[in-house]
Amino acid sequence: MMDADLPAGTEAIAICAPDNAGRLIGKRIPAERWQSVLADGLPMPDFHLITGIENIPLEGLAVTGRHRGFPNGVLRPCPETMCLPAWEPGSALVISDVADSSGGLVEHAPRSVLKRQVARLQDAGLTATFASELEFYLLRTPYQQAWASGYRDLEPSYHLHADNDILIAGYDREFVGSVRQAMDSMGVTVDQWQGEGGPGQHEINLRYADPLQMADRHVLYKHGVKAIAHAHALSATFMAKPFTDRAGSSCHVHLCLYDGDRRPVFGTEDLSSFGRSFLAGLLAYGPELALLHAPYANSYRRLQPDSFAPVNATWGWDNRTCMVRVVGAGKACRLEFKVPGADVNPYFSFAAILAAGLAGVDQGLEPPDPVPGDAWAESGAPRLPADLTEAVAAFARSKLAGHAFSAAIHQHLLGLAEEELKATRRQVTDWEIRRGFENA
After folding, report:
1. pTM of the model
2. Which tens digits make up the pLDDT trace of 306-325?
3. 78, 171, 323, 408: least CB-packed within 10 angstroms?
């Protein structure tokens, strides 16, 4: 919906903004307040600028905290994002930009980080379309029961995997159908869906859109899947690697770029010089920006050899073992970037993709030869970080991050990651206890 009028029957509006985990944070207001909030914004504490995955404010970040008294920020609703979530009849949902008390947009907010890179693209006379392919596990264990059990002995929606198996994937058609209908009611088009490589694992793909719109749809979709699972007394997880012995959940990102006449600039039959340099930027800067695609320790459990996830900075024509897969022909020629997992914040990931690609173009980089076979065996290719420690160190050293995102945003994102790393290092896992309780 592109106007600011509320649909008939709307009783309440959820005014929200994505946080650092890509989770929607905000408040609900009665419908009669909509016009005033649209004009003036909605005050809300700015905790969400410094929360991690557990939605708890972190210490030591400059943008806000105890040193600033946790002041109010302002959510500025973007009426073009208004949608009607089917799981909340009578409610509307609007995604917002984040402003400070003086009215200026907060550059640290995820939407602002992506907008900066989209503006750089526009300054170059280019537009883009992105599509994120999210995988998730559907479980018969409701969320409350899963939590009470310590997330052990979770029952998948079916005991066999449904990797492109029409029969087994069809067993979850009621749930998947509810997701599709909900997305359609919000103006988010589903392109296709299929079973994936783990028991209960699914992939529902959304139609491509411009980068900011795609990121908004991505977070709405995740929000919707979780809410619909809860309504069905099920649970769904977008962890990158929720089970040691099962497939990880990815978020492959497909992207195309166009000039002012909507002509593809990556090429049609072969990669153009622009396409080659953009690809070379993804390869050159992918390892040092990996943190923005894989933000948690668990993210790196997925990025392992022989897992259909990349481990090094390689590319190939329709090669699923590479970090970047070039696929399609003609106007559909596109790059598939395969580092992100389903736990990714799309605003940060999309921004990192654009920053790396544009750096490659600015510097006139050339990619190495494509890998025709097993990219996991390419020992000479630059490696992706093996864990969160390496990813944080690589991001800290990144000159591109400071240049493309600004020094303040580089330090902010690094600070969030360092706090996540500290939390990770304090934990004792079930695996450690099982191995060492008697044997150590």
Report:
1. 0.96
2. 888 999 999 999 999 999 99
3. 408
